[in-house]
Amino acid sequence: MAEPINLDTTYEDLMAQKLAKFSEMDKRETSPLYIATAANSAETAQMLATIKNNIDLVFADTAPREYLIRRAAERGLSPHPATKARLKGEFNIDVPIGSRFSGDDLNYVVVEKIGSGEFILECETAGNVGNLYLGNLIPIDYIDGLTHAELTEVLIPGEDEEDTEAFRTRYFNSFKSVVFGGNRADYKERVGALNGVGGVRVYRAKYGPGTVGLTIIDSQYNKPSQALIDTVQEAVDPLSMQGEGVGIAPIDHIVTVSAVEETPIDITLNITYQDGWTWADIQDDVYRVIDEYFKELAKEWAQAQTYEEDYTGLVVRISQIEIRLLGVDGVLDIANTQLNGGTSNIELDKETIPVRGVVNG
Where is each Baseplate J-like central domain found (predicted)? Predict the structure, then answer.
């Protein structure tokens, strides 16, 4: 039986193997033997590289995006498309539905009234970019009596098209649990694909027999707005017809959607500064580092794959905060950090993510 071909064999390896078979012949680089062997080895090395590349294209762990999409399509999967952000706009008057505004190089259209002078606006550009601007708006067309127009809150975050590695992970996860109408995997797959949802946990009989509890986090890994909760509830199991199978949920599943909660973490830092540095110099960087750590924990909450009943709460660790803050310019050392007035790590409720509270440096 022939030995398997090593597709990582290099041109140099091939030359060494072939020339070693000719012990009594001229093997200098100018010799006919060397020239003939070199040409053959170059072609063989190119062939092996082509074969290896073609194999990488068709296996999901190495396939580039185009071929990964084709492989995943065999399981009925495709990347989640980019979606448009919906934001709350506040005006001094009631503006017409369909009126358009601009702000920070983006355009927004009014799609729904939610109160006196309060409307939902949709960013005309899909993706995360629609979540980034809050502030004054300029009407694209003249609106009589308008003196104030402002975006004040992201209600349903817009999302970029699912990136390649996230899609690759979702493809492999699809083998771990079979999606079937109304099982946990089905809820996770279908609710997680809704616009603005970053993750969902599914609870059996959370509110009694026949009930299903869904706890969601938004796609920015923040506590979702009430508008997003209402949108997901309507898509899954409308409150006016709960259990009737009108939405995503199967008939007789009474589903209630709720938001992940937030726990403020107050932090007291005992920092030794580098010469010439003060708290005012590093405060913004400290806030950024803490927020990034808490965002990582929130993402961990969203992406956990175990059964919900087996979840434990996230743990905010003093060591993680101190290690990360040691990388901030101006910080020489840090010790004796306190969280919410104590010197121990904080384990959160399993339906809670951390947010930055008061930070004292």
Answer: 180-259
